[in-house]
Design brief:
Blueprint (H helix, E strand, L loop, with lengths): L6 E5 L5 H13 L3 E3 L7 H10 L4 E8 L2 E11 L2 E15 L15 E4 L6 H14 L6 H7 L2 E7 L5 E7 L4 E2 L3 E8 L5
């Protein structure tokens, strides 16, 4: 059995209200996330805060063109943060409140679901997120019987990878939904 690992979630230094709301939604949707307001913290300061919170990983929702444009994943090391691929570039988001779920409670159990006939790109992103957040891959039937929420990855109508959260067993989308424009698999330190 894999033990849960805490993940610190924060934003870039000057977040928009949309970025803060997205972070709140993600903190309610993914297990073992600690959301922290960044303020004026440098990346080294974020690493120190993660160590204080006993978090082994960090997610930073970064700003681009006035909104959430990039999601970066990091592993916490004693000497700072180490970037973990992929870097996710966001082309669109839809918040929980847009699904009528603004006041919903935190997730109790979470599974990763990918339609079996999905494209290889969907599986690559799903495997990376599953590994980073310690979310088990399950079939829809297994997820319905074992979990109350699923992170669902698929293509949207324009052929872009997107992930969203489904309330189980009803299989109703509750958000947030994040549409990915691009993923960068090579990171520089």
């Amino acid at each position: 059995m894999v033990l849960p690992q805490k993940v610190l979630l924060t934003t870039s230094r000057r977040p928009t209200s949309l970025m803060r709301t997205l972070c709140r939604d993600l903190a309610r949707s993914i297990i073992d996330i600690v959301r922290v307001n960044r303020g004026k913290l440098s990346l080294d300061g974020v690493a120190e805060k993660a160590l204080e919170c006993a978090a082994e990983k960090v997610v930073i929702v970064d700003r681009w063109q006035g909104g959430p444009g990039k999601i970066q994943l990091f592993k916490v090391r004693p000497d700072g943060l180490m970037s973990i691929p992929p870097i996710i570039f966001v082309s669109g988001i839809r918040l929980r409140r847009e699904f009528g779920e603004a006041k919903s409670r935190r997730v109790g159990s979470l599974a990763m679901i990918v339609p079996s006939r999905s494209h290889e790109r969907v599986f690559e992103v799903a495997e990376a997120l599953s590994s980073f957040f310690n979310i088990p891959f399950l079939s829809m039937n297994e997820a319905v019987s074992r979990c109350n929420t699923a992170m669902h990855l698929s293509f949207d109508s324009k052929g872009r990878v997107q992930f969203t959260f489904l309330s189980l067993p009803r299989k109703v989308e509750m958000g947030p939904r994040i549409t990915i424009s691009n993923t960068v698999w090579e990171t520089t330190e």
